[in-house]
Amino acid sequence: MTVFRIIVLFVLAAVAEIGGAWLIWQAIKEERGWILAVLGVMALGAYGFIAALQPDANFGRVLAAYGGVFIAGSLAWGIIVDGFKPTVWDWVGSSIALVGAAIIILAPVVTQTATEPGA
């Protein structure tokens, strides 16, 4: 259940942060109205709360791992929302970032599970 919770929280955090940044981008770069900027700021605030719900108490570890999720999520957002066409280098870089994120955030979970009595 812990790994599932970690993944769900990372996905929710990615949607909140990337969506919030995108809304602000739309307000400023695309001149689509300041209400989008306000909604973006609210989404970015929600991201902070969602990230704080991660079971790992180490801020640096959670945010470092989230960096990989942010990279992949940003490319996915671009593909889905903006019609972005990633290059092979985008795919390779995103994959490397996700592997790094998985190593950072899941290694402590796997290590703790393996060392618990009865494991």
UniProtKB/TrEMBL annotation:
Residue ranges that the Swiss-Prot or TrEMBL entry lists as coiled coil: none
Protein topology in the membrane: Multi-pass membrane protein
Cellular compartment(s): Cell membrane
UniProt keyword Chaperone, yes or no: no
UniProt KW keywords: Cell membrane, Membrane, Transmembrane, Transmembrane helix
Domain of life: Bacteria
Transmembrane segments: 6-25, 34-53, 59-81, 88-110
InterPro entries listed in its UniProt record: EmrE-like (IPR037185), UPF0060 (IPR003844)
One Pfam family per UniProt: UPF0060
PANTHER family the UniProt entry points to: UPF0060 MEMBRANE PROTEIN YNFA (PTHR36116)
Family: Belongs to the UPF0060 family.
Record protein name field: YnfA family protein
